[in-house]
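TICKET: design request
STATUS: open
ATTACHED STRUCTURE:
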């Protein structure tokens, strides 16, 4: 089944046609980005620009290209009130009659761009007509998705009922590869940047030490995988289980984590919960965090439910 047919079936089941059309537009934007990535080296689109974004991060040419693709896609949809991008300081007003805000990280994992390693796009859609309605907790999302640009291009999405996994086929159309995806349990594997070990929050230090000692829920020594692109790491966990952590650390007290709440943590948390997993800051369910600003950062711990619960045990000890 291709995405268009899948969305038609949703329409018949009473989903908002405006939202479904918007999702098709978002999916088309990711196909454009996937094509750009394939030829980026040949077009000289690797390396850095001279610009930094609102996060103070150096922008790559592909960050800018992907951002333009997403903003332009939003601008073609009358259903969109605002576009909010990692790459833009403020929200971009789109349509005065729009009812959905599209919040996105157009290209996540930029540090992997120059080395031909999987990167991705992450998208969240919330109901919002006015800019005063943008700061909503993630539980209000009506749609969340990521595209992973790897050896194949994957689109994983949820409308809050289940999680469906599409793969780009030879005709450049998204085809359903797996419906109602559930995170498997039984994978003793964690994903964390261990170079920051000495600055992690203490409960996470204790959790990782116990996992390495084989004291985890699977009573064996844990394995580690870290791509360094959140999309790729989360896609692996969704596919075969395990846990991803970008915890609170002491590097900069003004930054309670590295990842951004509204376009990284929230959409991933919605997908993970819908797939039967859990997502927390260590102290609160991610989807219940009340955002105070668009580019807010938050600690992220997500993956198989029993494993996340185990980490939470160290936080409440
Ligand atoms: P990047 O800075 O390369 O864009 O949110 C950004 C992100 O990548 C995530 O995709 C990734 O999980 C994390 O940062 C990697 O951070 P480290 O620099 O600590 O590896």
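STATUS: resolved
RESOLUTION: sequence designed for all positions
ATTACHED SEQUENCE:
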């Amino acid at each position: 089944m291709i995405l268009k047919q899948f969305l038609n079936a949703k329409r018949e089941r009473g989903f908002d046609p405006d939202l479904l059309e918007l999702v098709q537009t978002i999916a088309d934007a990711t196909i454009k980005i996937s094509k750009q990535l394939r030829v980026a080296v040949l077009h000289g689109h690797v390396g850095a620009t001279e610009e930094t974004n609102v996060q103070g991060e150096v922008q790559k040419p592909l960050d800018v290209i992907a951002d333009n693709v997403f903003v332009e896609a939003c601008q073609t949809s009358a259903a969109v009130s605002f576009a909010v991008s990692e790459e833009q300081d403020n929200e971009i007003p789109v349509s005065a009659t729009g009812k959905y805000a599209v919040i996105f990280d157009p290209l996540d994992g930029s540090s992997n761009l120059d080395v031909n390693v999987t990167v991705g796009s992450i998208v969240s859609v919330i109901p919002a007509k006015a800019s005063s309605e943008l700061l909503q907790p993630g539980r209000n999302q009506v749609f969340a998705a990521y595209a992973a640009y790897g050896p194949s291009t994957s689109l994983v999405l949820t409308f809050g009922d289940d999680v469906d996994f599409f793969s780009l086929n030879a005709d450049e159309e998204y085809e359903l590869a797996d419906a109602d995806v559930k995170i498997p349990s039984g994978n003793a594997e964690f994903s964390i940047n261990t170079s920051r070990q000495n600055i992690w929050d203490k409960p996470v230090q204790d959790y990782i030490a116990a996992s390495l000692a084989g004291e985890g829920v699977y009573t064996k020594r844990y394995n580690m995988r870290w791509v360094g692109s959140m999309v790729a790491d989360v896609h692996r966990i969704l596919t075969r289980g395990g846990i991803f952590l970008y915890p609170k650390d002491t590097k900069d007290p003004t930054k309670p984590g590295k990842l951004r709440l509204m376009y990284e943590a929230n959409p991933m948390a919605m997908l993970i919960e819908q797939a039967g997993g859990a997502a927390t800051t260590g102290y609160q369910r991610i989807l219940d965090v009340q955002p105070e600003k668009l580019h807010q950062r938050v600690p992220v711990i997500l993956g198989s439910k029993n494993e996340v619960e185990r980490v939470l045990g160290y936080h409440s000890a």
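CLOSING REMARK: The two ends are 48 Å apart (CA to CA). The mean pLDDT is 94.
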